[in-house]
Amino acid sequence: MPKYHNFCQGMQTYEPFDAKNPYLATVATNRQLNQAGNRHLMHLDLDISGSKIRYDSGDHVAVYPINDISVVNRIGQILDADLDAVISLNNLDEESNKKHPFPCPTTYRTALTHYLDITNPPRTNVLFELAQYATDPKDQETLRKMASASIEGKGLYQSWILDARRNILAVLEDMPSLHPTIDHLCELLPRLQARYYSIASSGKLYPTMVSICAVVVDFQTSTGRRFKGVATNWLKNMVVTDNSHKATVPMYVRKSQFRLPYKASNPVVMIGPGTGIAPFMGFLQERGKMKEQGKDVGETILYFGCRHRNEDFLYQQELQEFQKIGVLTQLNVAFSRDQEEKVYVQHLLKKNMEHLWKLIHTDNAHIYICGDARNMARDVQNTFYDIAEEAGGLTHTQAVTYIKKLMTNGRYSQDVWS
Ligand SMILES: Cc1cc2nc3c(=O)[nH]c(=O)nc-3n(C[C@H](O)[C@H](O)[C@H](O)COP(=O)(O)OP(=O)(O)OC[C@H]3O[C@@H](n4cnc5c(N)ncnc54)[C@H](O)[C@@H]3O)c2cc1C
C-alpha cells in the first residue's frame, strides 16, 4: 500500500499508520476531569476503529498538534507577509535524502500552522541568523551575543529567551527593528514535533479507542504574556460533534516497555500522581478483564496524588468502582494541599513500608512509576531505598543495588516526562 503524509490535506489514509503516516482519529470524548481549580485536566477518547492499529496498555500515543492560529496570523502581520502565498522550500544540500524540509508546495500559513515550531524558545543558531535582519545595531548585537559561546551571551540567552519563555513571535515583538524575510524564517524554524501521551486505556478492553489523560499547559510568563502549550490547548478545544465536521487528531501508537507482569498473579504497585495516573487506567481495565475471565490476579495497589479531594481527584468514580469490584485492592491517595503539611505519594509509600517490602521481596511485585520526571520519580526512588533499608534491613549501598536490580529485571519501571 502506498503511504501518504496527508493530515493537512485530509486525504484518504492507508495503513500501516506510523510517524510518517499518522491516522486521523475522530475525537469521541473530550471531558474535563477536575471539578474545580484553575487548571484544566482532560480525558479524550480517540476513535481508531477501522485503522487496524493495535496497542497494549502502557504504550504511548503520539499526536501531531497544530499551532495557535492567532500566533500564526500575528507572525504574518509583523512580517508583512501574504500567508496564503504558495511556496516550495527546497533543500540546497543535494546529498540530503529530503528534498523539502516539509511537504511542498504549500502556503506560509500551512507551514507555520502545521509544520514549524513557533512556540518553543528559538535556538541560538536561529537568533544568529536572524541578527542580519535587525536594522537597529543594538538589536543585532543582542541577538549575536545570545548566540555566542561567551558567559555573558549564555546568561543573556538564558534570561531573555529561556527564563522569559520568549517564542519567535515574542522576539519579533520585542525587537521592532528585526524584520526577517518570511522565507528565511520558515527555513530556520525547527519542525513542530509530535507530542506523546501515555495511553489511558487498555487495548484488550477497548481495541477501537485510545484514551488520553492530559493537563493543559497555560501560564503567564515573566514578560506578562500568556504561554499556551500547543498540543494541550489544541486538544482542549476539540469539539465532539455529530455532524460531518468531526474533530480529528493525527496520531500513531508508539510501543513501550511499560508492561504489566506476564503472570497476572504477580502483585503490582502503581505510583502515578496527577496525569501520571494515565497508564494505570489501562492497567486496571486489563487486570479487571483478567479477573472477569477467572484468572488469578494478584494484589493491585495504586498510589495517586492530587491537590484537593474536591478539586482534582482524577477518575475518582472509576477508581472507587475498581475498588468495589476487587480489581483495585488498595487505593492510596495523597491530597497534597488538603492540610497544612504537604502530603505526597512518597509519604504514603513510607507509611506502608512493611507491606510494600513484603510484596517486593517475598511476593515478586512489580513497581510502576508514571508522571513527573523532575521531582516525583526521584523522590519515589529515594523512598524505595529507604524502604529497603528500614523494612529490609539493608545498608544504603545494598538498597541502591537492590532497586537497580529490580530495574534491570523489569520489576521497577518508569514512564516519566518533564
Ligand atoms: C513518553 C511521554 C509520555 C507523556 N504522557 C503524558 C500524559 O499522559 N499526560 C500529559 O499531560 N502529558 C504527557 N506527556 C507530556 C506531553 O507530551 C506534552 O509535553 C505536554 O502535554 C505539553 O505539550 P504542549 O504541546 O501542550 O506544550 P508545549 O507547547 O510543548 O509547551 C510545554 C513547555 O512549557 C513548559 N512549561 C509547562 N508549564 C510551565 C510552567 N508553569 N512554567 C514554565 N514553563 C512551563 C514545559 O517545560 C515545556 O517546555 C508525556 C511526555 C512523554 C515524553
The H-and-E topology, N to C, reads as EEEHEEHHHHHHEEEEHEEHEHHEHHEHHE
- Tell me the name of the CATH homologous superfamily of the largest domain: Nucleotide-binding domain of ferredoxin-NADP reductase (FNR) module
CATH class of the largest domain: Alpha Beta
What's the architecture of the largest domain in CATH terms? 3-Layer(aba) Sandwich
Which small-molecule ligands are present, each listed once?
A: flavin-adenine dinucleotide
User: What share of the residues lie within helices?
Assistant: 25-40%
Give the percentage of residues in beta strands: 15-25%
So how many helices? 15
- Parts with pLDDT < 50 across at least 5 consecutive residues: 1-12
Count of structural domains: 3
Largest sheet: 6 strands, antiparallel
Query: Structural class of the helix and strand makeup?
Result: alpha/beta
Mean of residue pLDDT? Answer: 95
Number of β-strand runs: 15
Describe the fold and architecture.
By secondary structure, the chain is an alpha/beta fold. It folds into 3 domains: 23-63 and 194-254, Translation factors (Elongation Factor Tu (Ef-tu), domain 3), CATH 2.40.30; 69-188, NADPH-cytochrome p450 Reductase, Chain A, domain 3, CATH 1.20.990.10; 268-417, 3-Layer(aba) Sandwich (Rossmann fold). 34% of the residues lie in helices and 19% in strands. The protein is built from 15 helices and 15 strands. It has helices spanning 69-78, 108-115, 124-130, 137-147, 151-163, 168-174, 182-188, 230-236, 278-292, 309-312, 316-324, 345-351, 353-361, 376-390, 396-408, and strands at residues 23-32, 41-47, 60-63, 86-87, 106-107, 195-198, 209-215, 218-220, 226-228, 248-254, 268-271, 300-306, 330-335, 366-372, 412-417. The strands form 4 sheets. The protein has a 6-stranded antiparallel sheet with strand order 6-3-10-1-2-7, with helices on one face. Helix 4 packs across helix 5 and helix 14 packs across helix 15. The longest helix has 15 residues, at 278-292. The chain is globular and about 70 Å long. The two termini are 37 Å apart. Bound molecules: flavin-adenine dinucleotide (FAD). The site of flavin-adenine dinucleotide has 19 residues, from strand 6, strand 7 and helix 8.
